[in-house]
Amino acid sequence: MSSRRRRRLQALAVSRIRSVLTALNINKSSNSSLPNLGSSPKIIGTLFGYRKGHVHFVFQREHNSVPVFFIELATPITNLVKEMASGLVRIALECDKQEQEEGKKKRRRRLLEEQVWRTYCNGKKCGFANKREIGPNEAKILKAIEPISMGAGVLPGFNGSGSGSDGELMYMRAQFERVVGSRDSEALYMMNPDYHGAPELSIYLLRV
């Protein structure tokens, strides 16, 4: 084999190796770039729901960033508003420990990847909550309140599917302090400057 041909084959081999490494790096970066809260100590939490509908929670790093965690509770939003008007509210979301198969290895999901949660509000069981994907209607709602960093109110122009049967859309947005206890527990405390520094709403995520 001539030295010229040998050099061409070596160059081709190096090129293929580089292509494989590039593909691996792309896959690695795409997995690591999935939206997550990381170690953020403070996040933005938004709850919303139609007056005759359920509570929806969305958590984001910033008020205009990609939603990281979106969950729908079985609790009617009017019930939650009444609870909050009467005092402090503690919501506990519980799920079971399950391991995901990955080839021959098993791994546990990240806590915010869990799909189904048992819900407790101030110690009372309130059905189940389900993790959801942001749809067109939810994206429109978040876009409408994007300029708001903190506050509560009613969004005009959002009447259910258009018939108005679901009533007005209520929302509340605030900054939450996030405390990660372990890979199976997190606590989110709403930071409310008008409530003498005490959290008016606390959410606990537990995997048991």
How many domains make up the coordinates? 2
User: Spans with pLDDT under 50 lasting ≥5 residues?
Assistant: 17-34, 160-165
- Number of helical segments with 4 or more residues: 3
Q: Please trace the helix and strand order, writing H or E for each element.
A: HEEEHEEEEEHEEEE
**Helix share, percent:** 10-25%
Task: Let me know the number of strands.
Answer: 12
What average pLDDT do the residues reach?
79
Question: Gap between N and C termini, in Å?
Answer: 65 Å
Q: Which strand order spans the largest sheet, edge to edge or round the barrel?
A: 1-2-3-8-7-4-12-11-10
Q: What spatial form do the alpha-carbon principal axes imply?
A: globular
Largest sheet: 9 strands, mixed, barrel
Strand content: 35-45%
Instruction: State Rg.
Output: 23 Å
Helix- and strand-based class? alpha+beta
